Amino acid sequence: MHRIYEYHHLVTNDEIDGLGHVNNVVYLKWLQDAAVAHSGANGWPARRYREQGIGWVARSHFIEYLQPAFVDQEIIVQTWISNLQKVKSLRKYRIIRPADSELLVRAETNWAFVNYQSLSPCRIPTEVSECFSVISDEEAPEQAAFSEKFTDKT
């Protein structure tokens, strides 16, 4: 089981906007790609959800852009489950640039578990929830350094 998943990506030319850095909506795509890859690595690829007629839909996203990324830079999206309830889950993310260890983005997505036919919320089956660990804020990647660096001290 992958508790904290790392999704690696090399920034491409088509991800760059008119300002010469990665377009904001691309970061959202990377978050979703990392979530899907994490789920697949833990035994729940998209195909399995479709076959079961159940799965996740995003309810909301929070993205805080801290530093830009540029073409040909490697980025790593770290993702983990922060909480898992009856029909919803909170997934958190960090996007880092390993070349200089810069934190580029911190983000989270609220996901709802639904029946794909009715699009109604449904209880997360045990066989799904057992495939993911909940990571507390204290266990989150570099949480101490993260909190110290980004906590408003005013």
What characteristics describe this protein?
alpha+beta; five-stranded antiparallel beta sheet
Low-confidence stretches at least 5 residues in length (pLDDT < 50)?
A: 143-154
> What is the count of β-strands?
5
Structural class: alpha+beta
Overall average residue pLDDT: 92
Largest sheet: 5 strands, antiparallel
Strand order of the largest sheet: 1-3-4-5-2
Strand content is 25-35%
* CA gyration radius, whole angstroms: 16 Å
Helix count from the secondary structure assignment: 4
How far apart are the termini? 40 Å
Global morphology: globular
N to C succession of SSEs: EHHEEEEHH
Helical residue percent?
Answer: 10-25%
How does this structure look, described?
The chain is α+β, with helices and mostly antiparallel strands and 154 residues long. The chain is 24% helix and 34% strand. The chain has four helices and five strands; from the N terminus they run E-H-H-E-E-E-E-H-H. It has helices at 24-41, 46-52, 126-129, 143-150, and strands at residues 5-10, 54-65, 74-84, 88-97, 102-115. A five-stranded antiparallel sheet has the order 1-3-4-5-2, covered by helices on one side. Strand 3 (74-84) and strand 4 (88-97) form a beta hairpin. The chain is globular. The N and C termini lie far apart (40 Å).
